[in-house]
Write a structure and sequence with these properties.
homoheptamer, mainly beta, SH3 type barrels, five-stranded antiparallel β-sheet, 9% helix
């Protein structure tokens, strides 16, 4: 049996809604469309949330991987 | 079917207006002219926006990728 | 006899509960599911703890390695 | 048709005056003499500007690329 | 005669107690079990010390190398 | 005609006095003895200057490149 | 004649006392025992100095290179 790799978890979340936490303290929610080994990530139907409140609708966004703390599938 | 890659999203936005958010808290708006794998990015007809207000007209600008948090197509 | 390598310690902790301390000062607890050489880490049944109090249930989370200070098996 | 690359924009600005914004908040103005893939940059006839005021004449300067936020041709 | 290399010093300290100082200002003490070229480090019987006071018993811990300032063998 | 490269400018300054500005806000002045592609730099007859005042005579110093903002030949 | 390289300066200082300045603002003094291309550095008979006062005797220490601002031979 082969050991799990972290990107497998992201791969299973493709097309599902995820929460992305940034080093700036903000949260971005959206449908995980794409990611790469740098954890550069694209969300569709994204919105920004600060302290649990939706602050902005952003549509599709490209997030540079090095600003990401964690990615959590909403139904994970 | 091949999985989407994050740079595909940027590629589709070439020539369209995008919002670039920087680690400094500023926003840069402009027409996406070019980017590379480091997310070094060139905008045409760029302007700087702070708290939703246009603060400077910048023309063409080269942005070093490591200062970028996210890139969002205006009509994405 | 071959010298131990740091990732061997993480490997032995797979499937067990670990505490992950982040550069932001937060702690994440959960079952270690996966990690890679960048220390990108996946926890199952994760929860966030601030000052010893559970502040959020997070389910499965992907943590970007460069935000991690240390990983400690709960029974290590 | 080949896609534009960000360094093409810098290349076209060689010999022209550019504004370089640093992560420290300062601006450096000068004639773009040279740059490389790390965005290490050399300006001739450089001057430092803080809040729009020229604060120092610096002559030729070598700027380490990782301190640069953006480079903007004055007539771009 | 071949010049010493920094990792030789860590290698000689394997199995002995060391003090690890982190960029966060904390100290971790424990028996040096393993390290790699990134200075990812594993301590056994680790404890956290703040201002000279033991604040937590941590057992075995994996420390990500980029958070480390220095490693000092207790009897070095 | 071949384009200038940034390190050519440093190379021409070898043996001459330069000002090195650090991310800490300090300035180091001295005779440029050596540098490499990481911009690790050696100055001879170096002195530290804070707010235009010489604060310390340092002799020969090795400066790690990633702490450098810019290098300016005194007669550049 | 071959140009000097920065590590040559460190190499000549092997076995001599050096001052190492850290990004944390502290100084470490000791006999330079070893270094590598990342500027990971080992000092023997090291002591910590804050504002010119010896605050701790540290014996042999391994310093991670990326925390170092500069290294200065005491008789350089």
């Amino acid at each position: 049996m082969e050991a799990d790799r972290p990107l497998d978890t992201l791969n299973k979340a493709r097309g599902s809604r995820v929460i992305v936490e940034l080093k700036t303290g903000k949260q971005l929610l959206g449908k995980l469309k794409a990611f790469d080994i740098h954890i550069n990530t694209v969300l569709d139907e994204a919105e920004e949330r600060v302290n649990g409140e939706t602050t902005r609708k952003l549509g599709t966004i490209f997030i540079r991987g090095d600003t990401i703390i964690l990615i959590s599938p909403e139904n994970g």
